[in-house]
Amino acid sequence: MRYSSLALLRGALTSHRHWQPAWTSPEPRPAYDVVIVGAGGHGLATAYYLAKNHGVTSVAVIERGWLGGGNTGRNTTVLRSNYLFRESARIYDFSLKLYEGLSRELNFNIMLSQRGHVMLAHSRHDLESMSRWVNTMHMHGIDAALLNREEVGARAPALDLSPRARLPVLGGFLQPRAGTARHDAVAWGYARAASRLGVDIIQECEVTGFVRNGAGVTGVETTRGRIGAERVAIAAAGHSSVLAQLAGFRLPVTSYALQAMVTEPLKPRLDTVVISPGTGVYVSQSDKGEMVIGGSLDLFASYAQRGSFAVMQSVIAGTLAMFPSFSRLRLMRQWAGIVDVVHDSSPIIGPTPIPGLYINCGWGTGGFKAIPAGGWTLAHVLATGRNHEFAEAFQLERFTSGRFVDEAAAAGIAH
Ligand SMILES: Cc1cc2nc3c(=O)[nH]c(=O)nc-3n(C[C@H](O)[C@H](O)[C@H](O)COP(=O)(O)OP(=O)(O)OC[C@H]3O[C@@H](n4cnc5c(N)ncnc54)[C@H](O)[C@@H]3O)c2cc1C
User: Fold this and answer.
1) What DSSP element (H or E) covers 232?
2) Strand locations in 100-165 (E)
3) Do 238 and 302 form a contact (C-beta atoms < 8 A)?
4) Which of 22, 93, 150, 173 might form a disulfide with 81, Cβ 3.0–4.6 angstroms?
5) What is the CA radius of gyration of the chain?
């Protein structure tokens, strides 16, 4: 069924009895052409583009919890494509362009809000490097502008712009097309559209091992039995290296907790996303009015989706250094997700050393913005056997060849 104002009107006239579940919950079949491990945004988008772009509909997405319950449903929803290297700019801007048409494509309102993303400059050195960054983005054909202090203030009036500020603001750097989208809606929209095209989404089903035929993989062992597959893809973010170990290879991925928090809601106060490279803290305001706050990683390997008090305290201190008036707000919720960090802060999308087994991981702290492109490019290699051109630079073998795409500076927060 299509969602539309007419469907809403019909619902209003019939006590909303005609709505159907957004996706089906079938029993797993004995075998599929493709099995995807992980129903986060990347796994679900991969399933959708397999069916939509390549006509591959014998696909199961296997999720050990509930769909979107991993990092996709825990992130701070920032979308941007202000990366430094051509390879990254290309894939992240492709993703942003897909996001721009996604509500219409999926017939699901993902609440895209292109309110802009401002990175603050706290020193002359910051301004120098930002002007280089802006020029690089222009060379990639991506929107970007340098702002002076008054222009930053006009976009974020609650910022402390006084010379007494702990980190004085000299100006900033804006990507106007950047912004936010509703994270759950992205997962739900892809799930609904994939399910409509024939994909099976199987929740509460953990992958516990891989079925091997000699060197290759021919299926997965799960808590609901064995499921055969011609090709298997892992899209499990912070649990990628656990799954790789089950399959018998090592990944250069370290799993850390990354936390976020929201305050009580208030009236519209901040109409852009603001990040301070000095504190690593970034803030935006949700459509409900909450201040959504994120910061640096808990820098010790962990699988606990909580985050430590010390990092929470330093994130709040950084927030108050930027926005002193927020000290009156109550914090409502705090949580964490387990992110998959690699040395060059760039993703891995493509085949693994095990024939028949593919992977999409390494997005670390910044893979929400990449969900459409991550799904698109993984679907491409699964369907055709060839890497998508946008994923060519992001192969696992770069960790042996040394051809890194080192985006540590542009990845947004410290890792
Ligand atoms: C606090 C926080 C803030 C963030 N902020 C941003 C941001 O503002 N912008 C941005 O672009 N990115 C951000 N990110 C990063 C972004 O959330 C992730 O990169 C992205 O959501 C990863 O999506 P995914 O589909 O790969 O993983 P996930 O959404 O984590 O999905 C992986 C799924 O795999 C499942 N799984 C794991 N093991 C198994 C198994 N054995 N069997 C079956 N299923 C399994 C998990 O249950 C999970 O549902 C943030 C992350 C966090 C934690």
Assistant:
1) strand 225-234
2) 117-121, 145-148
3) no
4) 93
5) 21
Q: To test ligand 1's pocket by mutation, which of 253, 285, 365, 394 has the most ligand atoms within 8 angstroms of CB?
A: 365
- Report how far residue 56's alpha carbon sits from residue 246's, in angstroms, rounded to the nearest whole number: 26
For ligand 1, what atom is nearest to the CA of residue 45? 25
Q: What does the pLDDT read at residue 215?
A: 94
Instruction: Give CA 192 to chain center in angstroms.
Output: 19
What whole-number percentage of the chain has pLDDT above 70? Answer: 99
Reported in sequence order, the residue ranges of 302-400 that DSSP labels E, i.e. its strands, are 331-341, 348-351, 357-361
Q: Which pair of structure tokens corresponds to residue 32?
A: 């599929």
pLDDT tens digits along 359-381: 999 999 999 999 999 999 999 99
Is 80 exceeded by the pLDDT of residue 232? yes
Q: Is pLDDT at 414 greater than 50 in this prediction?
A: no
Cα separation, 311 vs 7, whole angstroms: 46
Concatenate the DSSP letters of all residues of 31-65 into one string.
EEEEEEE--SHHHHHHHHHHHHHH----EEEE-SS
Alpha carbon distance 18, 24 (integer Å): 16
Testing ligand 1's pocket by substitution, the residue of 75, 202, 407 carrying the most ligand atoms inside 8 A of its CB is 75
Distances (CA, A) of 220 to 62, 224, 249, 292: 10, 10, 16, 38
CB atoms within 10 A of CB 235: 31
pLDDT confidence of residue 140 = 95
**Residue 67 CA: which ligand 1 atom is closest?**
49
77 in contact with ligand 1, CB cutoff 6 A: yes
Nearest to 31 by CA among 59, 63, 65, 67: 59
Instruction: Please write the tens of the pLDDT for every residue from 105-143.
Output: 999 999 999 999 999 999 999 999 999 999 999 999 999
Q: Is the pTM of this model over 0.90?
A: yes
The residues, ordered by sequence, that sit 6+ positions from 62 with a Cβ below 8 Å of its Cβ are 28, 35, 36, 37, 38, 39, 202, 205, 207, 220, 222, 227
Question: What average pLDDT does the segment 226-241 reach?
Answer: 98
The continuous run of DSSP H or E covering 316 comes out as helix 309-322
Atom 12 of ligand 1, nearest CA residue = 366
Query: What are 5's two structure tokens?
Result: 């104002």
Amino acid making up residue 67: L
CA distances from 155 to 76, 115, 151, 336 (A): 20, 10, 7, 29
- Return the ∠ at Cα 283 (arms to 278 and 284), rounded to 5°: 150
